């Protein structure tokens, strides 16, 4: 297996590059000499990332892509290779959050979050894999979460999607080893990262207000527990690619969640429910 120790002059594709971890990754990969292909469903966010990259990257292309749309992701992967000649790295980072009890959420809510968080990762992996194979040294990075390691009340949709990303990516990595591929794969489990994710979450009215969005106060409260900057997360992710890690935890809180899951795989649930109740969750 050829590894991506050196990212200089490699072509990196990143989804969800219009904000947060995706934007920080774009900036970090540019610093390492990558040519960038960036996608997001949010054209304004993407344009802002492109503006921040001005004069800092060898080459940048952008595309408005909804990762839940398989045909759009396939077309984007082909366009990346047409524009850049090859692609070495895909980071399936685009993601959304959803909050509400199982009783209150609709099956459409679950379809929505699985469409972006799980199917988006499957679409990105499947669309780019043949191109990565042809590059001679490729890597797939899929962003799960600490909520792919441990569950939380009110987060069943997000938990299901991030556990699915973890299972998919761990098996992908084993497939690639089994078949002697020149492509490798890393599953990333961030703890709380200071991004827009809490503010853009869909929240069921029964656990918030009628707007379907978290109130400012609720978002601020949640954000207090976010310990790690997007830039630091990007550094950890790039280091994991270079070292070809299977699994990477991002942030000190991620280590706590991981330890909880190992030490008390069932008992942690009561502990977490207590913490959420003490913060005013239902
Ligand atoms: N911030 C955290 O605390 C945290 C923790 C663990 C995991 N994560 C994961 O990290 C990833 C990045 O999230 P972030 O924290 O940077 O959030 P963010 O909201 O700042 O950025 C997410 C980006 O994804 C884009 N996006 C959303 N739906 C999309 C779609 N259908 N197609 C294309 N792009 C889409 C958004 O427009 C946005 O630019 C997500 O997968 C998230 O679940 C975040």
Structural class: alpha/beta
CATH H-level homologous superfamily name:
NAD(P)-binding Rossmann-like Domain
Question: Overall mean pLDDT score?
Answer: 95
- Indicate the low-confidence ranges by residue numbers: none
Query: Approximately what portion of the residues adopt beta-strand conformation?
Result: 5-15%
- Top-tier CATH class: Alpha Beta
Q: Can you characterise this structure?
A:
The chain is α/β, with parallel strands linked by helices. It has a single domain (11-254), classed as NAD(P)-binding Rossmann-like Domain (Rossmann fold). The protein contains ten helices and nine strands. It has helices at 20-31, 43-53, 70-84, 107-135, 156-178, 197-200, 216-223, 230-242, 252-263, 268-278, and strands at residues 11-15, 35-40, 60-64, 89-92, 98-99, 138-143, 183-190, 202-203, 247-250. It has a seven-stranded parallel beta sheet with strand order 3-2-1-4-6-7-9, sandwiched between helices. Strands 5-8 form a two-stranded parallel sheet. Helix 2 links the parallel strand 2 and strand 3. The N and C termini lie far apart (49 Å). Bound molecules: nicotinamide-adenine-dinucleotide. Residues 15-16, 18-22, 40-42, 45, 65-68, 93-96, 116, 120, 143, 145, 190, 192-193, 195-197, 200, 226 line the site of nicotinamide-adenine-dinucleotide.
């Amino acid at each position: 297996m050829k590894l991506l120790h050196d990212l200089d002059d490699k072509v990196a594709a990143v989804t969800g590059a219009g904000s947060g971890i995706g934007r920080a990754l774009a900036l970090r990969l540019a610093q390492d000499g990558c040519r960038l292909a960036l996608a997001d469903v949010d054209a304004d966010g993407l344009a802002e990332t492109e503006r921040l990259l001005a004069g800092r990257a060898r080459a940048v292309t952008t595309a408005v892509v909804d990762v839940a749309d398989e045909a759009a992701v396939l077309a984007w992967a082909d366009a990346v290779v047409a524009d850049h000649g090859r692609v070495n790295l895909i980071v399936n980072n685009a993601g959304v959050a959803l909050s509400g009890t199982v009783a209150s959420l609709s099956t459409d809510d679950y379809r929505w979050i699985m469409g972006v968080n799980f199917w988006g990762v499957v679409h990105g992996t499947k669309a780019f894999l043949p191109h990565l194979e042809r590059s001679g040294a490729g890597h797939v990075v899929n962003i799960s979460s600490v909520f792919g390691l441990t569950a939380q009340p009110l987060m069943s949709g997000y938990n299901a999607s991030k556990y699915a990303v973890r299972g998919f990516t761990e098996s992908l990595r084993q497939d690639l080893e089994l078949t002697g591929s020149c492509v490798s794969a890393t599953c990333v489990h961030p703890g709380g990262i200071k991004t827009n994710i809490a503010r853009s979450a869909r929240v069921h009215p029964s656990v918030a207000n009628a707007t379907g969005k978290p109130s400012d106060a609720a978002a601020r409260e949640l954000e207090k527990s976010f310990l790690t900057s997007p830039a630091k997360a990007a550094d950890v992710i790039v280091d994991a690619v270079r070292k070809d890690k299977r699994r990477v935890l991002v942030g000190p809180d991620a280590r706590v969640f991981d330890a909880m899951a190992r030490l008390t795989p069932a008992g942690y649930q009561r502990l977490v429910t207590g913490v959420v109740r003490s913060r005013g969750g239902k």
